[in-house]
Specification:
The structure is a homodimer of 136-residue chains. Chain A is 54% helix and 6% strand. Chain A contains 6 helices and 2 strands, in the order αααββααα. A two-stranded antiparallel ribbon of chain A has the order 1-2. In chain A, α1 packs across α4 and α1 (5-19) crosses α6. The interface between A and B is medium-sized, with 33 and 33 residues. Chain A binds a DNA duplex (30 and 30 nucleotides) through α3.
Chain lengths: 136, 136
DNA sequence: TTAATTACAGACTTCACATATCCATGATAG
DNA sequence: CTATCATGGATATGTGAAGTCTGTAATTAA
């Protein structure tokens, strides 16, 4: 039971894009260098973020990936759901079992984590990082 | 990213043992029948619970698994840690990275789920189940 | 129009781990 | 002594993560 490396890459890339200028596209080549991951693999991950509507892409020369719309609102949970999917972490006895007490408690615990992730926005971390770079 | 089936088996087995009489051992054969899992595999899982000190085992005739000590205090987290291990869900850049803001936030979110799991005791669910069986 | 650049899609490989199964061994009650 | 029961190790087997490779489509620059 681990978060995938892909989620890690996605979170760091989003953080990077918010710390950099949000208006012009950045190529996957450039984005991949900071994280020691191959461009083709990172591209697969970023395509998931595109399909989730979190970023947009542009083909051709001077193309790349760019933040989109209300990117200040993007939470950890948005990114995790885009990469890992939205299925529950716990598969209990049978597909739909609303009576199982164990299932209910596990869902409740997962919801607690999700609420924390939903209330944490990438932009806030990017600002904190920028701030700590300006001051010592 | 999923909780293992083994965790599911362990939780249900503990629930079953608390609902039944806690003083006499139950064989893995009997325990496995309720969950459609092979006795040999369930045995491997229960051995983890023994090593974690949550239950005790007795070999030989009339042997089996039995609750132990202050079993009323056993939480979901105790069982999950015994089966899945205690490692963090999120591996970030490098082994020890206390400066990474993303890492910090992920640990914090995981802690929120763990706190919920730590505060949920199996015995309470077993009692609720028993109660709902007595009344309609 | 051509060439260079860039994202995208699919097939494929590799590897780690979950999920078992089987059998030998050891402990214990009757 | 024998039947019963847990434990350990070896061994499949399936699944998903992680990553590579290659062709295709889109777009810009020349």
């Amino acid at each position: 039971m681990k978060y995938s490396k892909a989620t890690n890459y996605a979170l760091h890339t989003m953080m990077h894009m918010m710390a950099a200028s949000p208006d012009k596209p950045i190529g996957v080549q450039s984005l991949s260098e900071a994280q020691r991951v191959s461009p083709t693999y990172l591209s697969k991950i970023l395509t998931k973020l595109v399909k989730a509507g979190l970023i947009e892409s542009a083909s051709g020369a001077n193309g790349g990936y760019r933040l989109k719309g209300r990117y200040e609102d993007i939470s950890f949970l948005d990114i995790i759901h885009a990469v890992e999917g939205t299925a529950s972490l716990f598969d209990c006895c049978g597909s739909v079992n609303s009576e199982c007490l164990i299932h209910q408690e596990m869902l409740s615990a997962e919801a607690a984590m999700e609420e924390k992730l939903r209330n944490t926005r990438i932009i806030d971390l990017a600002k904190r990082l920028e701030h700590s770079h300006r001051h010592g």
